[in-house]
Amino acid sequence: KIKKGLSAGRVQSIALNLIIQREKEIRDFKPEEYWTIDAKFKKGRTKFEADFWGVDNKKKKLSNEKDVKEVIEKIDKDKPFNVINIEQKERKRMPPLPFTTSTMQQTANNNLKFRTQKTMMVAQQLYEGINIGRGGAVGLITYMRTDSTRISSVAKHEAAVFLHENYGEEYAASKPRQG
């Protein structure tokens, strides 16, 4: 029920309900304690790190310090450890989307400690062009004031052709990332 004089539109009601549900989840949250055992191994010049997973091929949850101490007490540091499983995973990271004005400013501030004014001044210089030795100034970036991450299909095609011809298929995306 809404008090007299207050409004509640369709969007307001849904948004308010989501906020109330989230606040209830936050208040009802009960933190669970968990522990991990991390080990550093060395064999000759080879070093690697490992995490405790379990005992006798059974996963063991470490809920408190007592559980951790029990495991550590059972470990005989003078006996050799056996590596039972090695998982090799290939991870692919997608390149970041092109900069918008705000993401360019944030990145310049976070990585270079540039203020907004300095970032925009440098971007303007890159846009206007820098003499790179090929007969005059060449603009190195497109328009720097944008909220769009879209790249024209012509530019995508030209970039793909350039990468294939100069670096090989392994460096060119098989399918351009949508932004």
UniProtKB/TrEMBL annotation:
One of its GO terms (biological process) is DNA topological change. The keyword Isomerase applies. GO terms for molecular function: DNA binding; DNA topoisomerase type I (single strand cut, ATP-independent) activity. The keyword Isomerase applies. Keywords: Isomerase. InterPro entries: Topo_IA (IPR000380), Topo_IA_2 (IPR003601), Topo_IA_AS (IPR023406), Topo_IA_cen (IPR013497), Topo_IA_cen_sub1 (IPR013824), Topo_IA_cen_sub2 (IPR013825), Topo_IA_cen_sub3 (IPR013826), Topo_IA_core_domain (IPR023405). PROSITE patterns: TOPO_IA_1, TOPO_IA_2. Residues 1-179 form the Topo IA-type catalytic domain. This is Omega-protein.
